[in-house]
# Entry
Amino acid sequence: MKVGLIDYGRGNLHSVNKALESLGVEVEMLANGEKFSTKDVLVLPGVGAFGDAMQNLDERGLVQPIQDWVKAGKPFLGICVGCQLLFDDGDESPGARGLGLIKGRVVRFPSSVGKIPHMGWNEVQVTKAGENLFDGIREPYFYHVHSYFPEVADSSLVACWTEYEGIRFASGVTKGNLAAFQFHPEKSQSNGLQLIGNFLRQFGR
# Structure
């Protein structure tokens, strides 16, 4: 299996690359869309701000190729900011448009939450839509680091929920051959590797 790891200057590339390689797949970092057609799966990681990330994607000519890939039903995995960018827009960067591949927007935890960012291990509640992705994971705890989270317009697309300080938010989504997670599977030890492996087995045939 050939995986393209999208390099747009804002991704946690080393950790994600290491996780993918440990699962026995061939990984190549892609800074433009020219080699997308040679890959079986694309992965969009991310750290940092929504607006900066979108600007970098745009400057590298990656926006349209990513949109075309997902709309064609090809396997795609988004992680953290790489999950947030799939939505229409977000509170963090007013005026910046996301990729618009999932209806909804990215919002900040309310001021009533005692500690922001939400950082550390937290349990996720798996939905029917996410059952196959979480197959074999008995205690679904994953590592989270974020101040913003997606509000998904269509709740049937939610693969899992996480609760933090009384706020329940969508921490994973799936749509067609796309899956994306607000938490970091590449930093979530055996659970994270199992999740990524499940995605590759389910969608990356």
